[in-house]
Each structure stands twice: as structure tokens, then as C-alpha cells.
Amino acid sequence: MKIAVLPGDGIGPEVTAEAVAVLESLALPGLTLFSGDVGGAAYHRHGVPLPDETLEVARVADAILFGAVGDPACDALERHLRPEQAILGLRKHLGLFANLRPARVFAGLEHLSPLRTDIAGGLDLLIVRELTGDVYFGAKGQRVTDDGEREGWDAMSYAEHEVRRIAHVAFRAAAVSGQPLTSVDKANVLETSQLWRDVVIEVAAEYPGVTLDHMYVDNAAMQVVSHPDRFGVVLTGNLFGDILSDLASAAVGSIGLLPSASLGERQTAHGTYGLYEPIHGSAPDIAGQGKANPMATILSAAMMLRHSFGREDDAVRIEAAVARTLADGILGGDLGGSHGTAAIGAAVRERL
Ligand code: ATP
Ligand code: MG
């Protein structure tokens, strides 16, 4: 099990250290950790936010544990030297086309969610978002028409193979978790969505154990807020996924608890190559103070065990330990508590 640890900036090193400690406490077979500089930390040492050495370390590993990048000291740099470029570069060079964002309201934390407290507890879904196609990457431009009016356009397109491979990621996730799959599109008006729907239905034939339904994106946005419990795995394209994943994250109401995965095409011995990171950023305002909540990164490590190493049991154990820790009232400042990074990490390990 080769894991590249890229802590990055701000609270990145603090939260990744706790996630690594959790992994080390699990007695995983052949666990080997590599590390690399990334973001502002890399810029200060190597003059670039994503050095070749780091990319190489990421490539030889089966999975990457990523902290966060962002450094106020780099604000004045040209765009290609800014820390944020590191994550974009990793996505591009490593072909990470699938973004997985779970959103879950843990028991006892319903009051942090902006959803009605009697329904908030029903929010436990996984958004599988396509990351490399759609309207962001189609032909785009602006022009002045013959009438002298300005006009802009962005072409939305999906190729069959792009839909097929992201659909497989979502069906595999639904098969492992036993949850139903909802494919979200806008097939009543968009051709891309028609193709999307057709391909998803074809792929579904390979996963007879997974229940599939289809929903228009406008309805899906409403249902996440009004009936969150009707979702398990949500499969969608880049644009709709961008919006829905932020909607779902906001519905949880606690940034320090949200993990994510970005998966590539390469298969490892027991899963899929991927990069795992918390949703939150480098939080320079609390960096170096031992205050950051490491749970989002610890939950990201659980996702890594599930998706890159086929260790569902270990993933579930970590998630259960986090849930217990929260239920026992061990809360970081972001959740209205006063426990620090190390205390939270230790509490999770005790409950493993
Ligand atoms: P970046 O520029 O890297 O995105 P940011 O400060 O803009 O950093 P976040 O890092 O997402 O954005 O932080 C938003 C707010 O949430 C900050 O006030 C930060 O302190 C807080 N925060 C983020 N992550 C955590 C965490 N793990 N634990 C506690 N508070 C957090
Ligand atoms: Mg930010």
C-alpha cells in the first residue's frame, strides 16, 4: 500500500498528520508512506507549487493524501506560481476525472445544519461528479454580432466514453455501500443529458444489484433540501455536480467534517488510483495553532481505504470511530467545541 502524503500549506500539515496516525494505527499490510512538497510550501523551497519530484511521488503511489494549498504570502505571484495551481496540475497530470463528495449530518450535529432539524439527520449522500468534461471544457467565446450586440457561448458536450467511465465509478460506489443511485441531468431540454441518460441506463445493466432512478437537476436541488433522505449515491456531470456538491456541503453545516476523493482511470491492486483531501482549504487564520479539526482529513483517509485499497471494513471502522467521537462530545472549534487537533485525532484512534 503506497501512499503519497502531500501536506501542503496552512493547517494542511496538522490535519494530515492526524490522518496518517490513524492509518498507521490500523496495521495495514505493507503500508509505505512517501511525502512531497506542494503549494506555497513547495514554492518557497523549489520555486514552483508542483515540483516534478512531487508529481513523481504521486505517480508511483497507489493513492495520495492531500492536505490543503493556499498561502497569503503567495498572493502577489503570477497565476502559474500560485499554490492553488498545484491541485489543478495534479488533477490534470494524473487524469483525475471523478470527484466524490460525501455529505453526511452526523448524529448529534443536526443543529449545525441549516436544514430543518427533523430532516437533517437523513442527509447521508455521496455525490459523484464528472470533472473533466461538460460546459467548462467545450468551445467557448465571445463576439460582436452584425447588430453590434455582444454575444457569448459555451458548448456543453459529453462523449459516450466519458459518461460511461464516470457511471462505472458511481455504480461501483453504490454497489459497495448498498445505496440506491440517482442520476441527475436535464434530459428534458439538453442533448448531452439525453446521451447521459442513455449511457447510464446501458451501464446499469452491469450492476443488477443497484437501484437506479433519474432526476432533473432542478428537482434534485429542491429534494436535497426538502427530502435529503431519498438520496444515496448521486451521479452527475461537471456543471450540475459543481452546484449540487456545494449545496450538499452547505446543508451539512460543518466544513471541518467534509472529505473528498478524486479518482483516476488507473486501477490499483485492490481499487482505483485516487487523491483524497478535505473540502476545506488551508485556513491560514488558524494555521499552526493546533485548533484545526482533522476529521475531514481522517474521513478522506477512510475514503482512500475504500476506493483505492478495497478495505471497506477499515473505512467503515474509521467512519464509526469519528461518529462515536462526535457523539461523545469531542468537538473542534468549528463545531462549537474546544478540542484541538491532537486531542481529536487521539480520541478517534482510541475509538478505533
Ligand atoms: P483557502 O484559501 O486555502 O481556501 P480559506 O480560509 O479561504 O483557505 P477555508 O480553509 O475553507 O478557506 O476556511 C474557511 C473558514 O473555515 C476559516 O475561517 C477556517 O478557519 C475555517 N476552517 C476551515 N477548515 C477548518 C478545520 N479543519 N477546522 C476548523 N476550522 C476550519
Ligand atoms: Mg477558500
From TrEMBL:
Names of the cofactor(s): Mn(2+); Mg(2+)
GO molecular-function term, one example from the UniProt record: magnesium ion binding
Keyword Transcription regulation among UniProt keywords: no
Enzyme Commission code(s) on record: 1.1.1.85
Parts forming coiled coils: none
Chain positions of site Important for catalysis: 136, 186
Keywords assigned: Amino-acid biosynthesis, Branched-chain amino acid biosynthesis, Cytoplasm, Leucine biosynthesis, Magnesium, Manganese, Metal-binding, NAD, Oxidoreductase
Manner of cofactor binding, per the entry note: Binds 1 Mg(2+) or Mn(2+) ion per subunit.
Role noted for this protein: Catalyzes the oxidation of 3-carboxy-2-hydroxy-4-methylpentanoate (3-isopropylmalate) to 3-carboxy-4-methyl-2-oxopentanoate. The product decarboxylates to 4-methyl-2 oxopentanoate.
HAMAP family given in the database record: LeuB_type1 (MF_01033)
Name this protein carries in UniProt: 3-isopropylmalate dehydrogenase
Native organism taxonomy: Bacteria, Pseudomonadati, Pseudomonadota, Alphaproteobacteria, Sphingomonadales
